[in-house]
Amino acid sequence: MDKRYLFDREKKKKIVEKVYFKTALEFLYSNNILSKFLLFFFTKFSFLSKFYGYLNSKKTSMYKIKPFIKHFNIDEGEFEKNRKDFKSFNDFFIRKLKPDARKIDQDENTLVFPSDGRFLAFSKISDLDNFSIKNHKFNLNEFLKDEKLAEKYLDGAMLLCRLAPDDYHRFHFPVDGTPTDTKLINGYLYSVNPIALRKNIKILSENKRMLTILKTQKFSDILYIEIGATNVGTINQTFFPNTEYKKGEEKGYFSLGASSIVLLFEKNQIKFDDDLLKMSKDNIETKAKVGSSFAKKI
């Protein structure tokens, strides 16, 4: 199997990513008759993801925590509570971190990553056409299900974040702002792993997602979209609409599985950091943590 590389921003070097269930993912998206049938079964019927979530919310799932931490070399020193205090694998998965575990860049002209994850930056939405294969095109109108919003952001920029199963799965506000009510767009639960996305970028427009408009003073209106994926039937919002939040404050969290976040910006509002943009042009995701800079005001 081919190795998949990430650019680790903290280590300032490329690393090989450990992909959870890599063999299963490669088989499911291999496009043969059996894989097509299984993919249809697992993604079209949300009760399977809910059942998987139910099993991992039981106390009996606690045995998975220690080997998972060891396999992915997760820093337990960041956890708000001791590993032995988690009540299930899902309780560990949605863990909170100590207040000082992530440093938030407080420069008012800077946007910070909304979560831990693997990131791709596109200065123009049309740049996504270079990310996928097999002639699948990303359609902003299909993604947002709103023609007026699509027109508003058509020539804007996009930050695509993929949270792997081993990531901290709470997401935060990238800048000071006031969020609106969240709009639910129902959909399926395809994987958002690059193995799947490079087969079909339209997965982003087919999966279950939630859209919030974040009203800001410096960066105009930012669209904040959480996308559910395989084994993630629930996107949990913990914020209160029409309330002002500071950069780095929590917006919500994903339940068990992998998932994704998309941030959309209007034209001529931001300039992505050079290292993030350079890696993205080479289709290499940047591994980074919530609170560190990804763009500045133009």
UniProtKB/TrEMBL annotation:
Gene Ontology biological process: phosphatidylethanolamine biosynthetic process
Pathway stated in the Swiss-Prot or TrEMBL entry: Lipid metabolism; Phospholipid metabolism; phosphatidylethanolamine biosynthesis
GO molecular function, one term: phosphatidylserine decarboxylase activity
Cofactor(s) listed in the protein's UniProt record: pyruvate
Keyword Lipid metabolism set for record: yes
Keywords noted in UniProt: Decarboxylase, Lipid biosynthesis, Lipid metabolism, Lyase, Membrane, Phospholipid biosynthesis, Phospholipid metabolism, Pyruvate, Zymogen
E.C. designation(s): 4.1.1.65
InterPro entries cross-referenced by the UniProt entry: PS_Dcarbxylase, PSD-B, PSD_type2_pro
One Pfam short name: PS_Dcarbxylase
Name recorded for this polypeptide: phosphatidylserine decarboxylase
